[in-house]
Design goal:
This protein has about 400 residues and is an alpha/beta fold. The protein is built from 18 helices and twelve strands. Strands 1, 2, 3, 4, 5, 6 and 7 form a seven-stranded mixed sheet that branches.
Length: about 400
């Protein structure tokens, strides 16, 4: 699938040394927006490409999601020949992106200081656990920074910290890396010089909970975990409908309260002076919510959804991720695109949540096979067929 118009980052070449989620997300964003993103994957010494190609369980979706629209070249950077080839490739790049532990790229001679001397226009994006400071020696994971950064505290019940149900910091950290790269490229147009961009998991997590930090600064009261919070709205809960199905229902204004009571025939509640305003209803939650739970439990979830939708009231079914692959809105609006998984099966993938002139940036290339584009890239750099065969050490998988 491709878009008819020229994408904004066409003509920009990105060479990425990334794995897992954070770094690949940065490359995916730039690739979706038109950049030529070349994924340098390790081979030799027992390694066969990005390890996420082989992850099971919760990691099984990492590679096919975050590596679409990219090219793959497999090189052994521990050899002089592999190192020379990657330096030649970097010489053609606008952006280098990496997310290995601190010191790894320096050992390879591929850190920003080493590359800047020869390539002053290069934009270099580093994705780390922490920005430089007292914590930067620590090994970070999404779950680690969620625990130390307040997000797990806010998500779980009191005394039961709980990580968010997605790799929120890895994904957003990669997005901020891409934003930084975009800013650096824009500034390069003005100055002619590149720069180093840094993005980090911990700082990203702190940004996510900043609203709760500022809530404390404004009110002087610590924010309560979300399951224990005092909601600003009286009806803002998950309810159980007839048959046990669950649905989220919200009534967030006095106008909506009147509409809600009218739609469901709750004249007694509409006329109750104790429930006149939203704040009155918040104060009455102790008895109001149990009463509403009893009434809602007598109504089917489809009827509830139909009435809320017909009356412009906020509601949401409790949906599992796999069900979204058949979501009618996503299918109708082009939010899902066909893709071929690394094992050859057809599937659908999720596009960037934005439009450009009414179009979603699409899938131009399936996630690459290991080393799939090595021959064409090395040939472009001037290597002969014999040199390419000796350099790649392997057949394209």
């Amino acid at each position: 699938m491709s878009t008819a118009k020229r994408l904004p980052y066409e003509g920009i070449r990105v060479v990425e040394f990334t794995h897992m989620v954070m770094g690949p997300t940065c490359g995916m964003v730039l690739a979706d927006l038109g950049a030529e993103v070349i994924k340098v994957e390790p081979v030799g010494h027992g390694r066969e490409g990005d390890a996420t190609r082989r992850l099971l369980g919760s990691g099984a979706g990492f590679f096919p999601l975050f590596n679409r629209n990219k090219k793959s070249i497999a090189l052994d950077l521990q050899t002089p020949e592999g190192k020379e080839a990657v330096l030649k490739l970097i010489a053609t790049a606008d952006v280098v992106s990496e997310n290995f532990k601190p010191g790894t790229m320096k050992k390879l001679g591929l850190d920003y200081v080493a590359l800047k001397a020869k390539h002053p226009r290069l934009v270099y994006v580093s994705h780390k656990g922490f920005l430089p400071g007292p914590y930067d020696h620590r090994t970070a994971l999404d779950e680690v920074v969620q625990m130390m950064g307040g997000l797990a505290y806010m998500t779980g019940r009191p005394g039961d910290p709980l990580r968010a149900g997605a790799s929120v910091n890895d994904i957003m950290g990669g997005m901020f890396g891409a934003i930084g790269a975009m800013a650096a490229l824009a500034q390069r147009e003005q100055t002619g010089e590149g720069q180093e961009v840094q993005s980090a998991l911990f700082e990203n997590n702190v940004f996510l909970v900043a609203q709760h930090m500022l809530q404390y600064a404004v009110t002087g009261k610590p924010a309560a975990p979300m399951p224990a919070r005092i909601s600003a709205w009286a009806i803002y809960d998950v309810f159980q409908a007839r048959g046990g199905d669950q649905i989220f229902l919200a009534v967030v204004s006095d106008t909506q309260w009147a509409i809600f009571c009218e739609a469901f025939g709750y004249a007694d509640l509409k006329g109750d002076t104790r429930l006149k305003t939203n704040n009155d209803r918040v104060r009455a939650r102790e008895w109001l919510i149990p009463l509403l739970r009893e009434r809602v439990a007598q109504i089917g979830v489809e009827e509830l959804a139909e009435k809320f939708e017909a009356n412009g009231l906020p509601f949401a079914p409790i949906t599992r991720p796999e069900e979204l692959l058949d979501d009618p809105h996503l299918l109708a609006t082009g939010g899902l695109a066909p893709i071929t998984l690394p094992d050859g099966r057809a599937s659908k993938t999720v596009l960037l949540p934005l439009t450009l002139d009414g179009q979603r940036p699409g899938v131009r290339h399936d996630p690459p096979k290991l080393g799939e584009h090595g021959h064409e890239l090395l040939a472009e750099l001037g290597y002969s067929d014999a040199e390419i065969a000796a350099l790649t050490h392997m057949e394209t998988k």
